[in-house]
Specification:
single chain; 221 residues; alpha/beta; Rossmann fold; five-stranded parallel β-sheet; three-stranded antiparallel β-sheet
Length: 221
Amino acid sequence: MIAVAIDGPAGAGKSTISRTLAGKLGFIYVDTGALYRALGLKFSRLGYDTTLDCDIEDVLKGTKIDICFIDGSQHVMLDGEDVSGDIRTPEASMMASAVSAKPPVRAFLLEMQRDLARRNNVIMDGRDIGTVVLPDAKIKIFLTATPEIRAERRYKELIEKGMGVKYDDILADVIKRDYNDSHREIAPLKPAPDSVIADTSELTFDESVQLLYNIVLEKMD
């Protein structure tokens, strides 16, 4: 089995690029960030904020997360409910960052992610795929772009969905999450030593996909 680990900061386009790349390669796409977003949504629905002042392990005991693929698209199920749309809000992003810093949460999801890679050719994206989840992955890519570009892309995406958001608020969230993700004690965001850095700040979406496609083909030779 071949595993492609794609890491990078929030808003770098990992999900959309990785999903398209997986389609071109005939691999299964695994959006690990969606798993953390789903858990963040669970805690949020229970009334907790990013301080997570609660018994985390007790909440996890009563939580079931599944990934299913419908027409090649990944859907995330939280306690039997499809929450694929609910987890794509700025609030869900901040909660995902908060829960991902907690060791019990990371342990809860780690084996699920590794099992998927053992059984399939996968494109797996997240914050620590190449450094922690799949350290032996054949191909590792660190996908990034400037905070301003990432905020602009996210702003346009949310506006197209009819959400009333402000660019300055999105940029502030991106910068805050970058800091949180790179400074957390457990599995901080950073490129794996053997990863290829792919900066898409000046690239279109199609150009970004082609860049990663070329990297994967080169590494597979």
